[in-house]
Amino acid sequence: MKGLLAFAAVALVAAAPSADFKLQGKIEQGGVAYGTAPPGTVGLTLGGEPVPLAPDGRFMLGFDRDAPATLTLAARTDAGTIVTRTLAVAPHAWALQHVNVAKRPPVTNEEFERLRAPEVAQIVAARAVRSDSDGWRQRFAWPAKGRISGVFGSQRIYRGNEPGAYHSGVDIAGGAGAPVTAPADGVVVLAADKPFTLEGNLLMIDHGMGLNSAFLHLSEIDVKQGDHVRKGQLLGRIGSTGRATGPHLHWAMKWRGARIDPMALTGPMTGQDLRKVPVVEN
Length: 282
Description:
The protein has 3 helices and 21 strands. By secondary structure, it is mostly beta strands. The strands form 5 sheets. Strands 9, 12, 14, 15, 16, 18, 20 and 21 form an 8-stranded antiparallel sheet that branches. The chain has a 4-stranded antiparallel sheet with strand order 4-3-6-7, with no helix packed on it. It has a 3-stranded antiparallel sheet with strand order 1-2-5, with no helix packed on it. The longest helix is centred in the middle third of the chain and has 19 residues, at about 110-125. The protein starts with a helix and ends in a 16-residue tail after the last helix. Keywords: Signal. GO terms for molecular function: metalloendopeptidase activity.
């Protein structure tokens, strides 16, 4: 009898579904993945940092341009158990690109810092906004059409052979005045009322779950802070305000502090050969 009970217990354990994560996407530097947490999950972390979890158990992950080789995804369930998975983050061979523009505007360092500090404060505050938008669930569309003139993650060398930070987004040379539309649903968290020193006319949208977009160098902004925008809605027009060598849209994305490649959410633009991108615009 005891043997039969022991066998039954083993059979029940073997038949129980394994509590694990379901993940889909590219787990690589600059990439994104989407997943479903184990049943009963009440808390989620990636590398020890909290990850937002939707009521239906869905979540997304963004992997920074310089993400480490491994990260631990952990779920805490309502039963008190911890479910973990070690994610291997694939490295990326980032390009080296030269930019024919000065690293900083022609002002003293003191003047630059005086101008820059309040701008950075506005950007930080905008990125801290957490809306309830479900835009993060959508397939993202390109916000503008045109030649890809700069790719995400490339190490930039400025005029005078001066090294700078890596390129934080993708550049689209669509022509002055060309329309810029929302790549997905979201809420406007920043619509600059005057050009920023580097970004020019800057617009930022929160897509929910800590995912946000920034659109730089616009010639005009057609929405205001607090507006709920829909995928495909007109946001503004391409320009060359701020630090720019010509009219283009710089589209940058972040997920909870991690800089990610917008192309990870859209896929390549039709007809573009990214091997022939010699210079970034900003």
